[in-house]
Amino acid sequence: MSFLKVKGLHRRFGSVAALDGVDLVVASGSRTAIVGPSGCGKTTLLRMIAGFDVPDGGTITVDGVVLADAQNQLPAHKRGIGLVAQDGSLFPHLTVSDNIGFGLDRNFDGREKLVSELIDMVGLERSMLARKPEQLSGGQQQRVALARALARKPRLMLLDEPFSALDTGLRATTRRAVTEVLVAAGITTILVTHDQNEALAFADQVAVMRAGKFSQIGSPREIYARPVDAATARFLGEAIVLPADIADGFADCALGRVAVVGGARTGRADIMVRPEQIEVLAYGEDGKDVTGMASQIDFSGPSYDVTITTDAAAPFVMRLSLPSRNVLGEGDRVRLRVAGAAHVLSGPGSQ
What we know:
The chain is α+β, with helices and mostly antiparallel strands and 351 residues long.
């Protein structure tokens, strides 16, 4: 059941179109990640949904109620929407307890009990309630910010790059903890991030934004395996994109003869293979495999990055990350094989 509907949303700042006809549908209780490079419009969209900015055109509807259009704007404090910002935005002069309960009526009899329940919910010790934000780690501050947002029992939660200031290990731990809280509470959530891995791990639905509009919306697996174009493919992770001649469900390309998803496409087109699909095998006589040579090897513990250049009149160069149990040496020769099918990208040359 759809809960949030954004239809034809436009917003201009001078000559720049921050949002250029954005459409988005979010199901009740689901998690959507909006991902894209800096300046693509994702934070502007979040501000529109929250009520901090007014659209030039289009509508925003939550649970059947129009929150904003070009003529009317429901004030932010009446929307029932929670927001957790990048830095948490905690009040430094207030205790954790007062930060969590900031939006609650001070005469509310159950205020203290609710604050205690909320800090339990986000996985922090009650002893922290008396502390000031400066006495907490970055991850703890973000959990407090989440508890504060949950205190008003929002029907929709907006997360604006809330984990970006945390180091890698803490970032993943905090994201998992926040996800568990939101799932348990059944709150519809939208996460804005520029981190592709974060978007794929967090969401039921991923929306890729570029230049003020969505280039593709779908499930994490679908959008990673079947991106609509090369730009989307590369934004969602490492991608090997190469030209190919397609016929009868196969593509002839620099990596040999490779099966493609679906059998209807024919002619010249670009295909995409993810690096994890490339099998690097010991060099030997096998006419079915493409061969190449290893160079530019960078060891990093559990894995290493290596450049492999294929043996061909027009060599194809790719960068792969391989497990370090079988480290190649500079100049080693290898065989290459593609596991699974390649994805045919849309664009010039495709039919």
